[in-house]
Amino acid sequence: MRDYLWRQRVKFESTLALTMLEPWEKLLCLIIISTLTMLVVTGLYSYLPQHLVDMQHRATYYLWGQEGDEHFLRQWVESPSLKEL
Is residue 13 assigned to a domain? Predict the structure, then answer.
């Protein structure tokens, strides 16, 4: 297990070129990367659901030319001919 973790650490450090940095520089880079990752995940978590709803409304408008009427999209998705595919 210890060897596996060591190999994963070496692979991670060599992929991101962290092997040439000093320990404090490694820590600084990892803090920056983790902060940016957390910001992206938080943004996706809070923004993506509403964006998917907006995309559904746009798809309904583009397909049927009617705004806000979702029963057309639901009827098309739940049609028996589509389930045969």
Answer: no
